[in-house]
């Protein structure tokens, strides 16, 4: 499976000690150079910074279609633009992205995508975690991951909790 990730899934899952879920679900995770830069530019202070530099299952790959990246920059940040462009180039099976506008652009480009909440639901379905609620609460309280109350309740319902 080819999975490309934006910054948010890596940094938020790393912040709550659940980054390994990405490897368990998708194997190798590919990130574009801009995502690597976002994670490592402040040294090792950002959750996930050390992991993207040391875990061999997280690989950095350059985007070759710079024209596409430049056109996406009209709507999105650098990391999101490169992640979407790389997912298109690699014909990725999955793009990991949380930002609403980025997800809309991914859908417009016929990409299959999921965010952290989808990762948690899939991880529970596969028996990798016993509770979505506990990890989601940690994301909210420790990583300051923002989720509306309605979405929170819907995710727990989908997870059977």
Give descriptors for this structure.
56% helix, 5 strands, alpha/beta, 161 residues
- The secondary structure category is alpha/beta
Mean pLDDT, to the nearest integer, reads 95
**Contiguous runs where pLDDT drops below 50 for at least 5 residues:** none
Calculate the terminal CA-CA distance, rounded to whole Å: 29 Å
Count of helix runs = 10
Identify the overall geometry: globular
Largest sheet: 5 strands, parallel
Give the helices and strands, then pairings:
Elements: E1 3-5, H1 7-15, H2 20-26, E2 29-32, H3 33-40, H4 49-54, E3 58-61, H5 66-72, H6 78-90, E4 94-96, H7 100-108, E5 113-114, H8 116-125, H9 132-142, H10 149-158
Parallel strand pairs: 1-2, 1-4, 2-3, 4-5
Helix pairs in contact: 2-8, 3-6, 5-6
Describe it for me?
With 161 residues, the chain is α/β, with parallel strands linked by helices. 56% of the residues lie in helices and 10% in strands. The protein has helices spanning 7-15, 20-26, 33-40, 49-54, 66-72, 78-90, 100-108, 116-125, 132-142, 149-158; strands at residues 3-5, 29-32, 58-61, 94-96, 113-114. Helix 5 packs across helix 6 (78-90). The chain starts with a strand and ends with a helix.
Describe, in short, the structure shown.
This protein is α/β, with parallel strands linked by helices and 161 residues long. It is built from ten helices and five strands, in the order E-H-H-E-H-H-E-H-H-E-H-E-H-H-H. It has helices spanning 7-15, 20-26, 33-40, 49-54, 66-72, 78-90, 100-108, 116-125, 132-142, 149-158; strands spanning 3-5, 29-32, 58-61, 94-96, 113-114.
